[in-house]
Amino acid sequence: MIAIDLEDVHKIYKTPAGEVHALKGVTLKIPKSTITAFMGPSGSGKTTLLNIISSLDRPTRGRAIVLGRDVATLGERELERFRLLNIGYLFQSYNLVPYLTAQQNVELPMLAAGVPRDLAKIKARLLLKLVGLEDSLHKYPVQLSGGMQQRAALARALANSPELLILDEPTSNIDLENASAILSLILALNKVWGTTVVMATHDPDVAAIADKVYTVRGGLVIDGEMPRREIKLDIERAKEIYEKIKAIDSTWREQ
User: How far apart are the C-alpha atoms of 28 and 4, rounded to whole Å?
Assistant: First the structure.
């Protein structure tokens, strides 16, 4: 099964200085339940590619099929709903709402999706426990370290149990210990939950957890391979939390 199918995708931005050709005919397929990494220097087109894959942006030319939907055929409201229910995005700058607590930040996408408030609270606490922030539920972003904000943002990205998780430089602003925790969690999500993960990174150690690694340079995607990195996972803990989250998802979707 294919999660992402890009065919001759171009992305051109118009600027006062002229046109910028950010993507130049990208064609690739990403299977479901895999981890894919894109590596390349700043300005190579990695973030533009993530924005196309996550349907935050549309191709100027070419076709992007995301989770079986041609994003070019969706209206803005339909596209927003599609992203909300199916795609989680961990931004490089976290993008946490500063006046909301960690728990409220995680609840926010669920409330937007129509999850009852009481169930959203329970699920937010489970997700924050999953990322190791069960003792920081009521702290505001300014009270959290960079690594803690990264984990809170990851919990928020998982709020609606997305089929596709997009990560933009997931370890760029955090220390080695927190980076290892994030990578372990990403692997557990993929292994236990079957989440399709697509990420951009500068770090070969991060890319090494992927099933497939591509190099992005000058708006072009170059095929490549890299051995998978072995990381010890707490699979049983992830499974236990996942079962509780599945039960919550089943409850509100049946209402």
Answer: 8
Contact 127, 245 (CB under 8 A): yes
Query: Checking phi first, is residue 33 left (phi over 0); if not, alpha (psi -120 to 50) or beta?
Result: left
Q: Rounded distance, CA 89 to CA 62, Å? A: 23
| Residue among 37, 60, 41, 62 nearest 50 (CA) | 37
**Topology of the domain covering 2-253:** Rossmann fold (3.40.50)
The pTM assigned to this predicted structure is: 0.91
Q: How far are the Cα atoms of 54, 162, 196, 221 from residue 95, in angstroms, in the given order?
A: 16, 18, 22, 28
Helix (H, G, I), strand (E, B) or coil at 83: helix
68's tokens:
């079986």
Give SS3 for 70: strand
Enumerate the β-bridge partners of residue 229.
none
Q: Are 55 and 9 in contact (CB under 8 A)?
A: no
- 21: closest CA among 39, 43, 6? 43
Q: Which residue carries 């996550």 as its tokens?
A: 54
To 10 degrees, the CA torsion angle through 122, 128, 134, 135? -120
Better-predicted residue by pLDDT, 86 or 15: 86
28 touches 216 (CB < 8 A): no
Q: What is the pLDDT of residues 8-52, one digit of tens each?
A: 999 998 888 888 899 999 999 999 999 999 998 888 899 999 999
Token output for 36: 């894919």
